[in-house]
């Protein structure tokens, strides 16, 4: 404590509230796989508490308690396990604030200086720029969603800047959409377009388990300076420990909540919720949970709605409209199986789904969105009756075109046999052109509907 007081006198940023009033010391009893077994921590610690592990080389590694087995605590480090062995010290610092109020997760100090920065899940900058200000608001990483009966309604329509989405999966402020895609179909490129083009105040992007090589490419090519200027990017690469990959999702959501509580319209893009679930699976299995559906322990499907429900409208504000978190969560469907456990669970929680199709990507049309399989549950309520009619007609034409496309390509279709098929043969190629959009192209929602109307009127589909 005396050393801590000297630090304050010397002019550092340490405050009395940051100093521990007591330290509980335990020992490492064993290290197996990704988990560490601790002795001397029971009766004083709970799930989610943070401890410091002192390795044989003197290096300190933060860890989180993820379970208990008898009188022993099971912890998982936020860093590598190198140097940790039986008998090493484990320290649990008790601070002046009531740590029991925070035992379900640590806090993160947030301020507006985060905009335009790239950080790791612990809130530390990794973009080589100036350090972040230590001043701000302490926010709990495990905050509860707003009370369902008290939170605001969804806001007005939100322009996403991508015609395929604005037309066939129209989104409202505070809505949550799932982006279902296999690997290599342009998912990252689409998310970069959404971050740049969306009509939001702040975009929060979580790269969970992303390939390290692709992070800089995403920042410079897909997101670009224009997108980064209004974004906060949280990065945990695929080689990060499972706790860091899990924490990236919590940190991004907490940052989005911070800006939402200021009354802002926030867009959170998470790539991907599947890798978040993979991290939860590693943590659950390491704590001794039995594997259930395809190796996922039950805690994964209990934790998933707790994260996803935090997005959406906030609580009403007195002097301005309630803030909104519009969320787009990418789901990496393994083997293009859209009914695998994570995809199935996410689809049941969110307010709509967007499906990216490998066959469309292979045909050269980007973004490779299958508009017939994509759905926004709020579209009919936020579009005008005339706009809904346009979408219904366009969907019907594209559905007919999908049915007869193979016959046409084989040369077996005879024009004049069916009027609707003839119309689809004329109109569908023009609709395909409308759905095609370059990465650098930004289209407003109004312009997209106007272009769709012009196509349908010119071909006599509507008057």
Automatic annotation (TrEMBL):
Cellular compartments annotated: Cytoplasm
Q: Give the reaction(s) catalysed.
A: ATP + H2O + cellular proteinSide 1 = ADP + phosphate + cellular proteinSide 2
Residue ranges of every copy of the AAA+ ATPase domain listed in the record: 173-361
Looking up Pfam families in the UniProt record yields: ATP-synt_ab, ATP-synt_ab_N, T3SS_ATPase_C
Question: Source organism's superkingdom?
Answer: Bacteria
Which SUPFAM superfamilies has this protein been placed in?
P-loop containing nucleoside triphosphate hydrolases (SSF52540)
Q: Which UniProt keyword terms apply here?
A: ATP-binding, Cell projection, Cilium, Cytoplasm, Flagellum, Nucleotide-binding, Protein transport, Translocase, Transport
The question of whether Cytoplasm is a record keyword is answered with yes
Q: What is this protein called?
A: Flagellar protein export ATPase FliI
Species for this entry: Asaia spathodeae
Q: What is the lineage of its organism?
A: Bacteria, Pseudomonadati, Pseudomonadota, Alphaproteobacteria, Acetobacterales
